[in-house]
Design goal:
12% strand, alpha/beta
Length: 202
């Protein structure tokens, strides 16, 4: 099994950009968000359970999950959020562990927004945190997803604080700058970390 580097950060921090830069170096990626979509794919048993619980309004016309509608429902109701988490988290963790175990590369990047919250840090040898100020998170997430700021703030409140996240970090990437201005700097930092992780994985 490969050496595992957990990549995490709050909503709007730029995890996807950092993961892309590692992938461009040939590093295999296991992304919990992608796995979360896979386990509720069209026709899956978990999707059937979700639609039975919440009703067909959480489905799109083509039968796939309406993630925006589901998000609104669970963030408005803590009990529903707990129900959904209890259904999905074990399945997501199991599939992530399966994919991680399949990797034969020196190291694999395990991308998880809720790495700390869901107690997935024991699976990782290192924890790389993409760090941004909370006001930057709010600006980016609102712009990217066209979500209302109130919903973004609820999502942020459901995640650990910036200070708590940094306590878990073995490495940190500061991503507070404008992406078009800092992309080269980010690429340089990722390359440095790539060499570090290759050395540690030996």
């Amino acid at each position: 099994m490969s050496y595992i580097v957990g990549l995490t950060g709050g909503i709007g921090s730029g995890k996807s950009t950092i993961a892309y830069l590692f992938a461009a170096l040939g590093v295999p990626i296991v992304d919990a968000d992608i796995v979360a979509r896979q386990v509720v794919a069209y026709g899956s048993p978990l999707l059937a359970k979700i639609s039975a619980h919440f009703g067909d309004e959480v489905l799109l016309e083509d039968g796939n999950l309406n993630r925006a509608m589901l998000r609104q429902k669970v963030f408005a109701n803590p009990e529903e959020k707990t129900w959904l988490n209890n259904l999905l988290h074990p399945a997501i963790r199991q599939e992530c562990e399966r994919q991680l175990a399949l990797s034969s590369a020196p190291y694999v990047l395990f991308v998880v927004p809720l790495l700390i919250e869901n107690n997935l840090t024991p699976l990782c040898q290192r924890v790389l945190v993409v760090d941004v100020e909370e006001k930057v998170q709010l600006q980016r997430a609102s712009k990217r997803d066209s979500n209302k700021e109130a919903l973004i703030q609820k999502i942020m409140q459901a995640q650990v604080s910036r200070q708590e996240r940094l306590k878990w970090a073995t490495e940190v990437i500061d991503n507070n700058g404008e992406l078009d201005e800092t992309f080269c700097q980010l690429a340089k930092k990722v390359l440095e970390l790539h060499h570090l992780y290759l050395a540690l994985a030996k």
